[in-house]
Amino acid sequence: MARATGNSAYGWPVQREVLTMPRVLWAPVLSLVILLMLLATPAVAQDGDERFDGRVLVTVNGDLAVPAGEAAEVVVVVDGDARIEGTVTVVTVVNGTVTLAGGTVGTLAVVNGTARIDAGSTVTGDVLELRSTVTVDPGATVGGDVRSMTGDLVGIGIAVGVLGLLAWIAFTIVAWAAGLALAAFGARQVRSAEWLISSEPVRTFGAGLAMLFLPPIIAVLLMVTVVLLPVGVVLLLFVWPALMFLGWLVASIWIGEWILRTSGRPAPERRPYLGVTIGLIVATILSIVPLAGALIALFGMGAVTLAGWRTFRQGTAPAGGYAPGVG
């Protein structure tokens, strides 16, 4: 990282790093910062204070200071130190030291760092810490509590887990209903796609890989033209995900019928209702492993694409009898 110097929003010289960290590191850092900002909601509203003008100050790998007489709505410092002499609604510091030197803060949050609240400083809300040290001078005022964020994080984790479970149950029900509808009204097309998975697995997988990358590229090119922006948005946000979901359903039915065949069932049903049920159960369990779910979707998406393309070219579905799991 290169080092550069500049001025803060208040004219104070601040030395900071030019951000050259890999993009892959930004997601966890920014996610943590956003989480802390949500947790750090001011306990005491300061209505009518005209000094709050919505100013947001963020620095990564650098220090930040709010001088006396100045104000900001939000201050976020990651891998650096913050010195607050003015007034700030929310202060969040990750991997650094925050010093309140006569300043006023609504809520203060510090993670893996140190917070020093000097005499004459005021925190109207709570001081939240995670793996941090908080020092409060007897001459300072803290209107709320000095507490750990561990309980908040556990509560959020439980809530996210419950919501995830409910979402998984809802998805399973929707997928089962969609699979039954597909078996009822598109059995012939499903058989054609299944036949491709069994007889041409390499080509089918290749087509699936192509459809993984081509639609987003085409959608971006369409959106760049501005005129075709709505078409690109629909392709990227609706058509492409629908194709993935359809492919996952088809591959799941193939799995179900393969299991039925290997278990000694003499011939597949005319409409694969039982294959849908068994296949979706197995595919849903396998999809807990992301790579397995991706492979299922790729094979199914490739089969749907090839079947649709050959039907378009020939006017009929791919020829050949269907035998699940048999090349």
Written account of the structure:
- This protein is an alpha/beta fold and 327 residues long.
- 49% of the residues lie in helices and 21% in strands.
- The chain has 7 helices and 15 strands.
- Strands 3, 5, 7, 9, 11, 12, 14 and 15 form an 8-stranded parallel sheet that branches. Strands 4-6-8-10-13 form a 5-stranded parallel sheet, with no helix packed on it. Strands 1-2 form a two-stranded antiparallel ribbon.
- A hairpin with a 5-residue loop joins strand 1 and strand 2 (13-17).
- It is elongated, with a radius of gyration of 29 Å.
Which short descriptors sum up this protein?
327 residues, alpha/beta, eight-stranded parallel sheet, five-stranded parallel sheet, 49% helix, elongated, disordered N terminus, disordered C terminus
β-sheet strand percentage: 15-25%
Major sheet characteristics: 8 strands, parallel
Radius of gyration: 29 Å
Structural class: alpha/beta
Distance between the termini: 55 Å
How many strands?
A: 15
Name the helix and strand elements from N-terminus to C-terminus, one letter apiece: EEHEEEEEEEEEEEEEHHHHHH
Mean pLDDT: 80
Tell me the helix content: 40-55%
Q: What general form does the structure show?
A: elongated
